[in-house]
Design a protein that fits this description.
The complex is a heterodimer. By secondary structure, chain A is mainly alpha-helical. Helices cover 38% and strands 4% of the residues of chain A. By secondary structure, chain B is α+β, with helices and mostly antiparallel strands. Classes of the chains: A mainly alpha, B alpha+beta.
């Protein structure tokens, strides 16, 4: 991992790092990834990835919820923590000129 | 009456016998919270709301509608959204956030009403401090300052549920909720001399629990005794149609075996654990384990043996690899879960920005702390095209091996015993400069989250500086009631869990 990679993943993560911050975080990420590299020594040929513990217990069927409307209108409550709003809409900077 | 040293099992009896009211208990703990601010255990307290809930609980008791836990105060980790209290996950990005709804855990434990008929009737004391978004092992990653350990305030309380642990250890709550993604209930419980249990994945609803790594996150209780944890877990756990990973048959009396002997038909009260096979994974006692921790855990194994259990050596060969596997998978899931914080619908928004993209980036950059940013970046990297197979998928494949290794071990034993952490609570600041050093401390707790297994932390001694040591009991899927049984039997024969924290008045 290089400084360019740090800036690239910061951008993909919608985070900003100035030069000094990127330089400080680079060795930390490098140290973490040298630990991560230890995984490459394991032979995992033919193994299915396990995304979720429940998938490991194949006999457990997860119930499906009944497809029906259970919630009423919570618009006002759900908008109470919005940083900027107008007429029941979330306000953001202009996207299309 | 020193209610802060009273297990909730006894508190329930006192409430039922009208020896004390919920309001008196609630006021007692609110007073202690006010006098115990130095631990920084709480992020939000609202005495008026708590007392209002206690009045409702007292009405339920006097009208004969009380359940087992009605009227008992409880503190909630700030990861559970709670109506009336602020819900911030100890992040600046959620400063002041008021949730329009209650997490299922909060509702299950809370005061019943027409929308929540099955609430246990407990009184919320407030929201406890934690590592920001539950990312951390020392509670030093909170945007609102670290939590101090009630056994020695120069030391960390552990994390990420450090506020819940310190609150119970300092007598600022009789019991508390926590969440555990890689050890966040068990390790602070061990560091603060408490009993805690992370149940099997899917036992407790994650609805309203602010998400960190969804395939690993699981909530559970932190209290003084295994019996108290059984009581709280029974009330927390239920099938929840709002959580697609909530198990259909969740919700049982996890305390049903507490006072029984392990083997049916065994009536020897001196050997209650006759027939129990305790597995000691050799990798949990290898290099890196502090000698006084090893000594205490081995003494605990001896005590279990004296109670009738047999000890067998087992192997969990991928124990060390659980660290890189976890620190790929958890950040990957976190980078996705935390993309919701964009400064649009709720939470912090930067004051100055050029356009929409700049607003996202500045709001997130100013709102998230250093460790959260690090994990988001790691997660973004391992999910990138070109790295996905080598990191993310490889980690998921090793995750399957880790889960299978546990099943092989459980062919030889009923429960697995080991330390919770390699050492006792470290000094504040001692490990915060080097993230990898902190990650290595999670070595014994991560694998159960990866496999989805239940695991407990139980006090089993002290080191030379009088800091608590915790042992870990790991069970097979859905064996919580059995784990709690073993823990309870151990606690009948030991008193480590009853010692009051040294700095607490």
């Amino acid at each position: 991992m290089k400084l360019d990679d740090v800036q690239r993943i910061a951008h993909l993560s919608r985070l900003e790092l100035n030069q000094a911050e990127a330089e400080a975080v680079l060795p930390q990420l490098q140290a973490i990834f040298s630990l991560v590299e230890e995984m490459q020594a394991v032979d995992t040929t033919g193994l299915e990835p396990l995304a979720h513990p429940i998938l490991f217990l194949r006999d457990l069927a997860q119930p499906m919820r009944v497809d029906q409307v259970t919630e009423s209108d919570h618009r006002a409550e759900n908008m109470q923590s919005a940083p900027a709003k107008h007429d029941g809409y979330f306000l953001v900077p202009k996207v299309i000129e | 009456m020193s209610w802060h040293n009273t297990p909730i099992a006894l508190m329930a009896k006192a409430l039922a016998a009208k020896e004390v009211s919920s309001k008196e208990l609630t006021q007692y703990f609110l007073d202690r919270i006010e006098a115990g601010k130095q631990w920084n255990a709480y992020l939000d307290v609202n005495a008026h709301l708590s007392l209002e809930e206690s009045n409702k609980a007292d009405q339920l008791i006097s009208s004969g509608k009380a359940g087992k836990l009605t009227g008992i105060p409880v503190a909630h980790k700030d990861v559970f959204v709670t109506r009336g209290w602020k819900s911030t996950a100890a992040s600046k990005i959620l400063a002041g956030y008021q949730s329009p709804f209650d997490a299922t855990v909060v509702a299950n434990l809370g005061i019943p009403d027409e929308n929540n008929p099955h609430g246990a009737g407990m009184v919320c004391l407030g929201k406890t401090n934690m590592d920001e978004f539950a990312m951390g092992s020392s509670n030093e990653n909170s945007a609102y300052g670290p939590v101090l350990n009630p056994w020695n305030s120069a030391h960390v309380a552990g994390g990420s549920s450090g506020g819940s642990a310190a609150a119970v250890a300092a007598g600022l709550a009789p019991i508390a909720t926590g969440s555990d993604t890689g050890g966040s209930i068990r390790q602070p419980a061990a560091f603060c001399g408490l009993t805690g249990i992370k149940p099997s994945y899917g036992r407790v609803s994650r609805y309203g629990m602010i998400a960190y790594a969804s395939s690993l996150d699981q909530a559970g209780p932190m209290g003084k005794t295994a019996e108290d944890c059984a009581l709280l877990l029974s009330a927390m756990s239920s099938h929840d149609p709002r959580d697609s990973t909530s198990l259909a048959d969740s919700g049982e009396d996890y305390g049903r075996y507490l006072n029984q002997n392990w083997k049916e038909g065994n009536s020897d009260s001196a050997k209650p654990l006759e027939g129990l096979r305790v597995g000691l994974p050799k990798e949990f006692f290898a290099e890196g384990l502090a000698s006084d921790v090893a000594k205490s855990v081995n003494e605990a194994a001896k005590l279990l043996e004296n109670l009738g259990a047999s000890l067998v050596e087992v192997s969990l060969p991928k124990t060390k690899l659980s660290i890189p596997v976890y620190y790929v998978l958890a950040p990957a899931e976190a980078s996705s879960n935390l993309s919701r914080f964009d400064g649009v619908r709720y939470g912090y928004r930067a004051n100055e920005y050029r356009d929409l993209n700049d607003m996202y980036a500045k709001s997130r950059t100013e709102g998230f702390g250093a460790e959260v940013k690090r994990r988001i970046m790691i997660g973004t990297y391992v999910l990138c095209h070109g790295y996905y197979d080598a990191y993310y998928l490889q980690a998921q494949k090793i995750r399957r091996i880790i889960a299978a290794d546990f099943q092989a071990a459980f062919n030889q034993c009923d429960v697995i015993l080991g330390p919770v952490a390699p050492d006792v609570a470290w000094r504040l600041g001692e490990k915060s400069k080097d993230p990898v050093q902190m990650y290595l401390e999670d070595i014994y707790t991560l694998s159960t989250n990866l496999a989805g297994l239940p695991a407990m932390s139980i006090p089993c001694g002290f080191n030379g500086n009088n800091l608590p040591i915790g042992m870990q009991l790991i069970g097979n899927y859905f064996s919580e009631a059995r784990l709690l049984q073993v823990a309870h039997q151990y606690q009948q024969a030991s008193d480590w869990h009853l010692r009051p924290a040294s700095e607490v008045a």
